[in-house]
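hi support,

uploading two proteins for the ticket. first:
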Amino acid sequence: MHAVYWKSLALELESLLDSWWGFSLFIYSKPKEVEDPVSRPPYELDELSLQDLLQEIPLWVKNPNYHSVDWLNKFFSDLWPYLDKEIGGMIRSVAQPIFAEYIGKFQIESIEFEKINLGTLPPIFYGLQVYETNEKELILEPSIKWAGNPNIILVVKVLSVPITIQLVDLQVFLAPRIALKPLVPAFPCFANIVVSLMEKPHVDFGMKILGGDIMSIPGLYHFVQETIKKQVASLYLWPQTLEIPVLDVSTVAVEKPVGILHVNVVRATKLLRKDILGSSDPYVKLSLTGDGLPAKKTTIKKKNLNPQWYEKFKLIVKDPKSQVLQLQVYDWDKVGGHDRIGMQLVPLKAADTP
């Protein structure tokens, strides 16, 4: 009994001594100087350190040739609900030749989209590289990643039996080259958008049929992924391109203005009588061929066969070697069309000759 008592007392004394020793060490020990942590700018860190610091390193961080395009992501985020229908139509047109290759194979009779809904998550631009060339073009190379939530439903008819397939959990990573060409002096300042892929895109998605995941079938997932990559690459992998027309180049004056033509309309004499009462109400229309701009007009001189205007005009000249100044005199009528009294053509090349 006494041995147990003395053993318990010894344990309590040992615990008190440990507490006193720790308290004394805390009170009487000299504090050490707190050292500032070593800080380094991000550009001095290696890629592994940056990966620990950032979940994903944007291209504009790793490559100085790429630009940060947060504004573009904001733009697409606000515009995405309105782009859904337009992009859906483009997907249908692009997919038609791909689907056509499988009609008649594997007892497939038709492949059609029942629904194309791109979801609420827009693509994300991780960087943009801009090239300037000696041609009349602007080349853009964005890095695009899209982990979206679309609802795309295909109906495949096999042996007259329709099979509904739903694409879900779509992920697309691609780096397209977008050329805006040719550059023209008319809004939006380029006539075509030419798109091509510099490398095969990464495509990942799930496919559900009748409530089951058919991508879980061994070998099917890899086959479908590679088939889609090959089909997209055969269509748009450089030098193959997708060309989207924006402006009709034939209607755009590509030549830059080279000068201004000053025209002073002074007078006309002995004009023909076009009115019933034996007079005319003349005015002059001025225009340059090839500019596509509305003609300019003088004032109307009522009941005058020898009118005087002394009115000055300025016309923009783009090609003085081929353009012609047109001067047309019309008789103004209150009702119906105006009758042309006469016309004079003045080639700018001849006018410039001393």
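and the second one:
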Amino acid sequence: MVDSNSETAFLAEDFQIPTYILKPESEVVTAPNVPACPVIVFINSQSGGQLGGNLLVTFRSLLNENQVFDLGDEAPDKVLRKIYVNLEKLKLNGDEFAGNIEKHLRLIVAGGDGTAGWLLGVVCDLKLSHSPPIATVPLGTGNNLPFAFGWGKKNPGTDDHAVKSFLGQVKKAKEMKIDNWHILMRMKAPKEGSCDPIAPLELPHSLHAVHRVSEADEMNLEGFHTFRGGFWNYFSMGMDAQVSYAFHSERKLHPEKFKNQLINQGTYAKLGCTQGWFAASLFHPSSRSVAHLAKVRILTKKGQWQELHIPNSIRSIVCLNLPSFSGGLNPWGTPNQKKKRDRDLTPPFVDDGLLEIVGFRDAWHGLVLLAPKGHGTRLAQAHRIRFEFHKGASDHTFMRIDGEPWKQPLPVDDDTVVVEISHLGQVNMLATENCRSRSVHDPTTPSHDDAEEENDSNEEDPIEDEEAFKKFGAADTFKIPDGVDISHLS
């Protein structure tokens, strides 16, 4: 969590919400004054070893314990629906206090990126007239969402002083919109075995959560299953996802070894070596490159579909929404004036409806991100992107959505696996004054010279059927199913 240097005394009444707002059956007892920054807090008590549980105790000791929720006990969609229904009833009865609570309400979520993404998705699905902005407490391994908005990436302190300091930052934080992205995946149904999830596939929870399309849906094809989901930070495929898959598989087998953030990060680095990511050209032949695995098309800023040229050396491709990847690295960087002019590239704004598409040759290539102006191979910025995998070089690849990896079977017959990504909507985040994320509406966004990258070329392609995208509803897109153990979400 961010430390505050403010000398302002902590006032619990600035954040506390009366019980009757939170529990409809309670007696109406209002506070003397409307809190300046009413908050509802969601904590994954299983995240960060003992840190999640300790945070839960501290927040409940400082606030009304009824406004602090353990995600292991109560799902955020049910909590927020109950509270907002109650707020509407109270406002209809002339309760101005309730109206002010709703107007100034802010949400806090403590957990890994998976936990934070869960809450963001729930807020998106509620379709509120004014979505409450969200602050994130880093309790995971990567913590890309908190880091992108200035809340840090190291696990926080959990004592009274640290939590009071954090609440002070939440009170001062600015609102910033963030794009969210719909992902559709269509693949052929298996001939035998369970198909929920499709055997032998363990899809990420954002894709588990949605139902297959109905027979009347245009995207439905005989013999195929279609899944819908969403993400906030990135979709990636290739070797980076392979290393992540190895890490998650190891953690699933030996959870007792993954209780410390530093140990987790060290294990991740070791797996990068053992998986051959530091010598991709030797351990993974060119037939495993992204260009050999998939045909990729993008919808450009000018509204035209084009085939995306991907160099044969690229072993990993990242479609990025936030300027934070793999624990805080920025693969896109800030294009200099020449790149802006010649290739129409912009900085990585988080609310411009564009994904930054970046390629990497191997882990050594990724290390250039540690340099002041380092970046990956900038391939394109796009409103939509479509991957088509046909029978060919490999029988599988690895994919990842916001830190959740899976091993994706590729066609063995003449069928096609399709992954389509399109813009879905926006929610409000809370950001510190010096956060690295930038809004397209912010005139203070910096511009500086950057390193060179490979040239690329695109060829026009016919425009896709627009009707398919009109059906991209957000309902239940990000909801974690009942009975799912959230302890692994990080």
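thanks. also noticed: The chain has two domains: 12-174, 180-430.
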